[in-house]
Structure formats: structure tokens, C-alpha cells
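Chain A, query sequence.
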Amino acid sequence: ISVYNIKSSRLNKKKKFRTPPFCNGRFFFWQKEWEATTPDSFSVTFSACGTSIHVGLSTLTTQARLSTSGSFNCSYDYAIRLNTQPTTNPSIPPIVIEKYTAGVAAGSGEATPVITQLPVKLISGLPEVIIGTYKDYWVTYNAGLIEVGLGKVPGNQIIAVAFDQDAPSGVCTFCFSSEM
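Chain A, predicted structure.
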């Protein structure tokens, strides 16, 4: 599955995905065509620009998202963040992969997500991207194994790998966001 022209601001008819500035790159937009036909084993290639590029992976199908209490369910199981600009801050890694699971807030009893950062093995660094220019990336998901790379061919130019030994079953949808 290939998606191109992911960029931060608003969505337009030319398939350029943009995130509203007030969302600070944390808004994911889901589309029916961004659903894998083979759950738990798929690759997606995409072209994106921004200082931080996000890919969300989820077990919720588009139909399930729409049938949630009359509102659109925006939850996801994994968030992959590519920090494309160099930083001298060692606490900002070039790639972060987080797992989101349901939980209950201590004291309040309210449902709240539990965020776990998966250990990421960096194979190579991210090249610095000139702001405003698009770069090709790919993400492969295979039953808890998440690989991220550069270019248009999944499996080539791998930059990072992570594995979730307690991966949820049925990961089938993905979405995108970026920060400028």
C-alpha cells in the first residue's frame, strides 16, 4: 500500500495530508483505503515531509471506528515517530515506537491509555531532511515486528527495528501525521 504527500496542515483533494497546527502533530487521520487486506502482516510506503513524522497502527477497522457510540474512535495500538531534524538533546531519539494499551487511571477509575516505549534497535540514522521537501519512507508490520526504512522498497535501507512480544492480534489499519 502506498500513500504520498503527507504534510502538516489540512487535508486537501490532492491527497496531501496535513495536521491542524493546534494538534501539534498528534492528530491521526484514518481512511478506508489505509486498511491492510492481510492483518498482522503488511508494508506501507509513503512520502512525507516535516520535522517529526508519525505513523499510527491499529487493530480497529475503519468500520469499527465509525460504529463507536456515534463518534469517530481515534485510538491506536502503536505510534511510530521519526524525528527528522538533528538535535543536541540526547533525550530526543531519532525514532520512537510507542505501544498504547487500555488502562485505568489510579484513583479516578477512568479509562486511560497506558503508553509503553518499545526498545528500538537503530540500524542506521535518519538523514537530515530539508524542511518542506518530501522523503520516501516505509513501515513493515509482521505480528509484532516493526521495521522502518527509507526509500520505496520495504526491506531495503532499514533504519530501525522493534519487536513487541505481546503484540495485539489483528493490526490492520494505519494513519499518518507530521509536524512542520
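The chain is about 5% helix and 40% strand. The two ends are 24 Å apart (CA to CA).
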